[in-house]
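Researcher: Please predict.
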Amino acid sequence: MRELGVLDDHQQLTSLGQQLGRLPCDVRVGRMLIEAQQRQCLNEVIIIAAGLESNEVRQRPAGLRDQADTAHRKFLDPHSDFLSLIRLWDFYEDLHQKLSRSRLQKALQENFLSHHGFREWSDIVRQLRDLLAAAGLKPGRRQLRLSPVPTEATQTHSNRAQPRQPNDQPAQSIPRPEGYAAIHQSLLAGLLSGIAERGQGHQYKAAGGMAVQMWPGSGLFRRSPKWIVAAETVETSQRFMRTVAELDVQWIEHAGQELLKHSYSQPHWSEKSGAALIYEKCTLFGLTIVAGRRIRLAPIDPELARQMLIEHGLVAGQWNCDLPFYRHNQEIIKDIEELVKRTRQRQFIVDHYHLMEFYGNRLPTEIIDLSSLRNWCMTHVGSPQEQSLWLKAEDLLSSDDPTHLDVSQDFPNTLRIGATDYPLTYHFEPGHDQDGVTITVPQAALGQVGDGQLDWLVPGLLEQKIVAMIKALPKSLRTALVPAPDVAQKLAQRLKDATPSSSFFVTLAREMSQLSGESISAGLLSSLKVQDHLQFCIQVIDDHGSQLASGRDLSSLIQQFSTQRLPDSAATDTSPSKGGPQAIARPEDIDQVPVEMTINRGGIPITAYRALGDVGGQVQGHWADTPVQADRWSRTGVARLFAIQHSRSLRSQLKHLPHRGQSMMSLSPVMPTSVWQEQLELLLARLAFVEDQDLPRSWIDFQARGAQATALISMATQDVAAWLSQLATEYQQLRLCREKAPKLWSATTGQVQQQLDELFAEGFLPQTPWKWLAEYPRYLKAARMRLEKLVGGGLPKDQQIAAPLVAAWTAYQQVLKSPQAARPDQAESLQLVRWAIEELRVSLFAQQLGTKITVSVKRVDEMLAKLR
């Protein structure tokens, strides 16, 4: 009775039950008819119901069963055996109206149909109509009429002609007729316990888990739809469901909604809907009608739904919420999280449990999803309860108040190096590649960034860095700097006023030495290993802002991109987009290249500096990383321009140089006479117009300098004449001394030859600054004196003296091969070390000649240590 809706949960008769009680027919039939009245298909359901109550009109005489099956095939409906009854009824009605009684009987006999059966069926139809009319239910007009199925289609769906293929679909030429849903939902209302779900093969699972099969004579036998309803179940050798129809499972759920059993599982949050959802399973008579449908959790468990709204929505931010209070709160949280990233102080970390408690205490209980939250906020704007949802920083900070920190000063957003502000970002995740502070540098500007600035890190982390360095010191030094945190605080305060351009390690070493009373060198401090987050992570980006590489070793990054920095990638006129070095064919073309330019690289404006370089005898405009680099390159280019403009005067002076021919002949092993001639011209131009002078920055400056050409070239010629004569003399004497040296001296002569190879390396004349080039005769004389001291058994002492020199030169060569050497800011230091080693040779082997600078083995070692 509950299945049909006759009784409610309290076993009381429902209004539907009362209506059924007034119909003098089977209660199931009555339920179908009442539903059909509501769905406006009562006439069709009367025919079907009468057909179910009457005897079978289809006949299968013994010996003629195949012929009978063939004749009946046209009445089979591929979707519903109930509609097959409609087809039979309409076939009979059509014949009954057209034919006489005898011809009607004959036609029915030819189709293996029972005339008596149809008369019985007709009587029941008439009786049902009368009963319904008496009960006030008027059938109305027929909405659906069906003709016999075309022969081709019936052959396609014949269950006896071919074996069943479960995946077969109904022919597209026979879709479900209009009104199919209304008719079968009406039938389902009275046959609900006759539903079944397809299993394996022909098997179906019926109500209560009973295993049944579809009747082989059904028009649906070959297709076996997923869900069916049967008018009856008969048991012969097996249980068979007879007179079945294909159903949509939604019809079953609707018809049996009062009997469904619901179960729920896996509550979860939906970011898209901004609500907590849960999976619902619905069963009816032991059959799973809904396997796993997502529905809102709130109607099932509003308390849990509210908790998940707070946890996943308000706290975790897993939704698309634009409410003002929430945007404000996220900004507060973001500021605190950024504070944690910068200060690396865990006591400022936002406690999610605390945040959940904050919302839980303030959020009304009726708010269970984003939709209800929006509605509530719209109706409570500005109210005290709505205002209570607006966070303040003190609501979340669980420990010390960080207001004493000057975040913008101690943890800046940018780091100014030269004229450029490089972006800084902070990350707090120990072990992560970018833990700590990341500075973003365009590939083209790598040469402008030096360790001098990066070693200082940021003010807010300086004290932590000093603590780490103190702990990394040798024990003998570390014990004089305890307790480390207190000492680091004092040192950080002392360093506060130091300029970032000064050496961090030199400054810190001086302060540490004063504080500890011990001698602590900058070289030692620079070699100490500290945690990654106490060193900048350098992110290299391209012109579009995409990352190319990152790391904490600036020198390695500079070496990696050494061929791709500003000189080759920036333009040489006012438009950076034009690219490539620009040839400067004439001195007046200097004005085409600006002194400096701001170029946007990856969204970061960087400053590039004009440089005029001598490239294979041609002057080209470049952009340099630093003013120092630009000046160094430009001296070669400007010297070449002067040499081009004043070539006649220069050649004339060289032609009358005293002993020119003899000197160049003596120096021919160094390079051919023709090369000497060309490079001496360039040397004269450099000394006359460039060396130790400010470079001309415009065509006007160039002309002014050129106006003094006669006097300038004359003075330079005197210097070169004296130098060239001394160089030739000393070179010839050293050469003769080497040729006379016995093989026993090979270790020393080999070292001297290596010295000569380095002094006279290709390009030495235009590339060596005059202040060191002028010392070449003294260097050669010192080398000769060294060889002369070997006479009389001085070789062991020579090698003993040479040992630290050889070590220094080896270390210098290693530095040249290291990433450090590729950095523009190291060029001057490398040059100074190179000539300090040369002066060290003089100091060790010919001290009486004197040195140009103060030099010693220790001093050279310290210079090398700073470059490592």
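Model: DSSP finds 37 helices and 17 strands in the chain.
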